[in-house]
Amino acid sequence: MTDTSQKPRRVRLTRDERIRQILDVSTRLVSRHGFYGLSLPEVAKQVGITQAGLLHYVHTKEGLLQLIIEQGYDQRFDPEDFAATGDPAATHPDGMSFPAYCRYLVAHNAQDPQLIRLYMVLSAESVSPEHPAHTYFHDRPDRVWELYSRTRWRIPPQVGDWSNMRPLVEQTIAAMDGLQLRMFRSPAIDLPTAWRDFEQVLFPAPIWDDYR
User: Fold this and answer.
1) DSSP notation for the chain
2) Which of 80, 149, 157, 205 has the largest count of CB atoms under 10 Å?
3) pTM over 0.90
4) pLDDT at 3
5) Residues with Cβ < 8 Å from 117, sequence gap 6 or more?
6) What is the dihedral of CA 21, 24, 28, 34, to 10 degrees?
7) Do residues 17 and 113 both lie within one domain?
8) What is the average pLDDT value for the chain, to the nearest integer?
9) Within a 10 A sphere around the Cβ of 167, how many other Cβ atoms?
10) What is the phi-psi region of residue 39: left when phi exceeds 0, alpha when psi lies from -120 to 50, beta otherwise?
11) Average pLDDT score over residue span 181-200
12) DSSP readout, 148-167?
């Protein structure tokens, strides 16, 4: 007779696998409830470990937030990732196309609405100086500019060199943020389709026609 009273055997995960599991669960919970509504016991329960086991990986609730931002959100779709696709607009001998990179970024963001929702929730919460992500979002424009400044871009001569591009870069990011919010309104928009209209305004013809 088979003994059915035994508990199922727990599957051991590598550290990287466990952290990915923690990231997936906590990202989903924060995108729904915000950081202040996040419960470490609930994260541990959904991951299938004890709270002590969870703290072994993240140490504190703030540590979990840092993990979400640094490994869940920040490490995705930078210019190097675009170059790795081999897209001609990314590998042109005169430099990468900034409008093409923006299209790439929008297209990939649209495939993961949960991460977009996470970003929106945290950016809204972190307006408060007491929020643990306040500094991160306050400093983000400088970090993005520094990241993009490491890439060689192909820019119309009328614009000048890359040092003149910061206002346009910040306007572009602000436009993306606004459109991403519309994904969760009714009626929802298709992000890549809506971005095409914004691109014509941000990178107008005929100046940018040969630089897309």
Assistant:
1) -----SPPPPPP--HHHHHHHHHHHHHHHHHHHTTTT--HHHHHHHHTS-HHHHHHHHSSHHHHHHHIIIIIISSSS-HHHHHHTT-HHHH-TT-EEHHHHHHHHHHHHHT-HHHHHHHHHHHHHTTSTTSTTHHHHHHHHHHHHHHHTTS-EE--TTT-SGGG-HHHHHHHHHHHHHHHHHTTSSS---HHHHHHHHHHHHS-TTTTGGG-
2) 149
3) no
4) 52
5) 31, 32, 184
6) 90
7) no
8) 91
9) 8
10) beta
11) 92
12) HTTS-EE--TTT-SGGG-HH
- The residue with tokens 């971005």 is 195
Confidence of residue 35 (pLDDT cuts 50, 70, 90): very high
Q: Quick one: tokens of 153? A: 């871009």
Q: Are residues 25 and 116 in the same domain?
A: no
On whether the CB atoms of residues 180 and 116 are closer than 8 A, the answer is yes
Whether residue 32 lies inside any domain: the answer is yes
In a domain, 4, yes or no: no
Residues 24 and 121 in one domain: no
